[in-house]
Write a structure and sequence with these properties.
This protein is mainly beta. It is 1% helix and 41% strand. The chain contains one helix and 32 strands. The strands form nine sheets. A seven-stranded mixed β-sheet has the order 24-25-26-31-32-30-29, with no helix packed on it. A hairpin with a 4-residue loop joins strand 18 and strand 19.
Length: 468
């Protein structure tokens, strides 16, 4: 129940109280009048059913970063400020998001929307998913970095609840959380990690929080039936432990039960789904692909420089039942990807990079593998943590097999023709993306020398393959 996991790929009831402790004093807010963990969003679309779209929110858990304005951009959503002046320990509301890849950016509070963001990340949203993108100081030399956590979207049975612990308290060592009369909720969880969800009875719980550095506090949390909650352990401005309990995505579903609360005013218009991407001519990417993800670096590597804006252009979409690639298998490169993410073209005209080092993306503006035209799949070669999904792509040889499963149950079979490397400034866009008489496949990643000043590889490795 207390097993911990790394913040990696992040969900109680609307009646769960916000609880904050400072210097041993516990304050409990009434369920009907909970203060927001972050200022109200400026322009959030109306809530929508997670079964149709996905849900996405942002948590500011980086004590080294000041207050920021949060921006989101993705399919059907132009660059939009979704929350203002979010400071450490702040959490935005969920943003209903159509499936696709989104860019989240944090700029210093009050800065121009066109200024260079202090932090940025890309997040892949799938139908029915719920995620929390957390900015935490877990990068090289404790620099801020975005981590994405999957939130629970299914409520537990009546009479029970799910609770997990997210540790946002830097400098206190490992954290233990024990529910009195219920056992441990989290064991030995360090800053930048989260425990698994634990099943507890729906009632008022007293929780003991202790750290390996000797700090401790106690909080009282009312947990409602069928709720799903995250208990965030952080530190207040004086350095004392502070605890915030927040409802996760499953608590917003109609099935979740919660104590009666004053009815909300009727909405002036029914809630609608986030707008879908407008129909527009397909854009062909140009230039090299940024699929290096920062490179393998030593522990004493310099801090990551401020990220550049990465505006996302919506990917043209077809009907939901259209055939699409669903995986990639390359035995000679140890690649066995169970899903492919749709990629679009960024504001500079380059193909987007997949969000994570183990993700494989498909240029959705190109051909479906197995159909006439070039199909382009992209993956990272590595990250500062270690090898990426396309780490061994450069080792492929002519004749190696490549298989691409498709949503219609068929598999597109290819064979490697050549593996070539190109300077990103001399990337052969026409050769990679240009029309072909029959089906063709290109696998792209980074390679060559690593430029530490830009934290990017200077070349791209391209695998050219034809049907077999």
């Amino acid at each position: 129940m207390g097993r911990r996991t790394r913040l990696g790929r992040w969900a109680g009831t609307t009646a769960l109280a916000l609880v904050t402790t400072a210097m041993g004093v516990t304050g409990i807010a009434a369920a009907a009048s909970l203060p927001s963990a972050a200022p109200a969003p400026d322009r959030l679309p109306a809530p929508t059913a997670p079964q149709e779209n996905g849900l996405l929110r942002v948590a500011h858990l980086s004590p080294s970063t000041g207050a920021v304005d949060m921006y989101a951009e993705g399919p059907g959503l132009p660059a939009t400020r979704v929350a203002s002046a979010v400071s450490y320990r702040g959490l935005t509301s969920y943003l209903p998001a159509a499936p696709g890849t989104y860019t989240l950016s944090a700029r210093p509070a009050g800065a121009s929307a066109t200024s260079v963001p202090a932090l940025t990340t890309t997040v892949a949203v799938t139908p029915g998913s719920a995620q929390t993108a957390a900015f935490v100081d877990v990068g090289p030399n404790s620099t801020p970095q975005a981590e994405v956590i999957a939130d629970r979207t299914t409520a537990p049975p009546p009479g029970s609840a799910l609770v997990r612990v997210i540790t946002a308290a830097a400098g206190v060592g490992a954290v233990d959380v024990v529910a009195q009369g219920g056992g441990p909720l989290a064991d030995d969880v360090f800053y930048g990690a989260t425990s698994d969800y634990a099943t507890v009875d729906a009632r008022v719980w007293t929780m003991d929080i202790t750290t390996s550095s000797g700090q401790s506090t106690q909080v009282t949390v009312p947990v409602a039936s069928r709720s799903v909650s995250s208990v965030i352990v952080s530190r207040d401005p004086q350095g004392a432990l502070a605890v915030t309990a927040v409802p996760d995505a499953a608590s917003a579903t109609p099935a979740a039960e919660a104590p009666a609360a004053p009815a909300a005013p009727a909405a002036s218009a029914p809630a609608t789904s986030a707008p879908t991407a407008p129909s527009s001519p397909r854009r062909t990417p140009t230039g090299g692909v940024p699929a290096g993800f920062g490179g393998l670096v030593a522990a004493d590597a310099p801090a990551i420089p401020a990220a550049r804006p990465m505006p996302v252009v919506a990917v043209p979409t077809g009907p939901r039942d259209a055939v699409r690639p669903t995986g990639l298998v390359v035995p000679a490169a140890d690649v066995d990807a169970g899903r492919l993410l749709d990629l679009g073209v960024d504001g500079a005209g380059a193909l987007q990079a997949p969000p994570g080092p183990q993700d494989v993306g498909w240029f959705a503006g190109g051909a479906v593998p197995g159909e006439a035209g070039p199909s382009v799949l992209v993956g990272h070669v590595d990250s500062w943590r270690g090898p990426g999904v396309f780490w061994r792509l450069r080792d492929l040889r002519a004749g190696d097999a490549v298989d691409v499963p498709r949503s219609d149950g068929t598999v597109a079979h290819f064979v490697v023709d050549a593996v070539e490397r190109f300077d990103k400034d001399a990337f052969p866009s026409e050769r990679v993306y240009g029309p072909t008489a029959g089906p063709s496949l290109r696998l792209v990643t980074c390679g060559g020398a690593f430029d530490r000043s830009t934290r990017s590889y200077v070349d791209n490795v391209v695998v050219f393959a034809s049907p077999r």
